[in-house]
Amino acid sequence: MINFRYHLVSLTAVFLALTVGLILGTAALNGPAMEALESTSQGLRDSNEQLRAQVTQLEEQLGDEQEFAAEIAPTYLANRLTGRNILVVALPDADTRAVDGAVEMLGLAGATVSGRISVLDDFFDPAHADQLVDLVDTTTPATVTTPVTYDGVQAMSHVLAAVTTGKAGGTTVAITPGDITTVTTALDQISMLTVETAPTGVADGVLILAGAGSTDSDAEVRNTGMVTLTNEFALDAPTVYGAMNSAGDGNPIATIRADDTGTVATVDNARFTQGQIAAAAALGDFITTGTVDHLGIGEGASALLPEAA
Fold it and tell me: Average pLDDT over the chain, rounded to whole?
């Protein structure tokens, strides 16, 4: 009869055999396995080093290209916007350095910046739509007729465009400094707008600079609002929409290019010096010849820059 001691000895023997097999197997495979693993790791390290070197080279090349663009900008842009008043509007996520660069390029083209404002994220928040509608009722100048709409962004954009450009729906309207202050101050007080350079109420053209658009849960509504604002300014003056890039689903520049109504010119690489030059040049083309350019490196762009004037 098999007793408990027999079972215990048998189990011990099984575990001992497994242990010995594991040790022998590990010893037999350890060398080739480790060599293969080390070889794979070294290959990955070499590949990463190569990719880093390529990225560094591309960054240096981009830097050289932007330096070259900056050097030729004064000659290329000369007289494209001489005597023109340009309103600069920054939208959410527009790189401040890029906006500064674009303003510099406008100056090289001979333009005068007739105002610089930043429209903030809360302006496009659907939760504030009713607040904008109420604001329209209390801030619209007597000389401006707002569109019949329940869209707060559209109505307020119409008023903001009117007081900063001196036109409403393309028709010149009488705007006083008090009208401008009333609208901009009201928006500033509810964190929807900041004023970097007070608008004069006169604009021959508008340069709108923006990030890649919203990606949060209300992204579609917010991005649509940015397109709506752009279109309201475009009703009053030749307008260029300059995006930092064209990447991302719902990027407003893609919508503007897809609609292509011939009322908004676009630049999709305004983050870089070359794109800032393109924005100033495109605005010059639009104002002087009515040509609506779509410039940059993304889908829908026809060229990097317009032809020299």
Answer: 87
